[in-house]
């Protein structure tokens, strides 16, 4: 018998901003792996970094944004990678950006768009992303976020803590 390894080495962050009585989702157009596809913020967890610290760092690196509030989304994005014959499991976080926050992309992306949840669901290429977006809309937009999921920073991003 051969087992398929499960890898958990990266994080996924859905960034939201106020738009009238609801919220918009930030999507980024990739330039490297999966070039041309729209996605949320994602990236690897570095040494001596917690998953939530990696999430905050990746948001800042990829978008220049610093969320006002940051939550565990209480869900993981999962997918099978055929080239590695492995299942990847990424903890998901939700960051709330200010209404007028300015996005500054790094080289990993060629464009960004703030879109409605319905539009985001049409734009992302994978079923796992759509599942995550539906969960976040239900738990963080249509309902008040669970206060136990709020992450209170106790150490600077990237510090060993």
Automatic annotation (TrEMBL):
Gene3D superfamilies: Nucleoside Triphosphate Pyrophosphohydrolase. InterPro entries: NUDIX_hydrolase-like_dom_sf (IPR015797), NUDIX_hydrolase_dom (IPR000086), Nudix_hydrolase_domain (IPR051325). It comes from the Bacteria. Keywords: Hydrolase. Residues 6-137 form the Nudix hydrolase domain. It holds the Pfam family NUDIX. The keyword Hydrolase applies. The keyword Nucleotide-binding does not apply. This is NUDIX domain-containing protein.
């Amino acid at each position: 018998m051969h087992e398929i390894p499960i890898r958990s080495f990266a994080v996924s962050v859905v960034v939201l901003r106020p738009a009238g009585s609801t919220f918009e989702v930030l999507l980024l157009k990739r330039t490297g792996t999966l070039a041309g596809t729209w996605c949320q913020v994602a990236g690897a967890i570095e040494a001596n970094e917690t998953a939530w610290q990696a999430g905050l760092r990746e948001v800042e690196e990829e978008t220049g944004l610093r969320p006002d509030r940051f939550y565990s989304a209480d869900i993981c994005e999962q997918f099978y990678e055929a080239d590695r014959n492995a299942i990847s499991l990424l903890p998901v976080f939700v960051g709330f950006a200010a209404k007028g926050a300015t996005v500054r992309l790094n080289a990993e992306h060629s464009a960004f768009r703030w879109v409605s949840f319905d539009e985001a669901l049409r734009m992302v290429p994978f079923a796992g992303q759509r599942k995550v977006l539906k969960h976040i809309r239900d738990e963080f937009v249509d309902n008040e976020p669970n206060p136990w999921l709020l992450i209170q920073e106790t150490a600077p991003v990237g510090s060993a803590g």
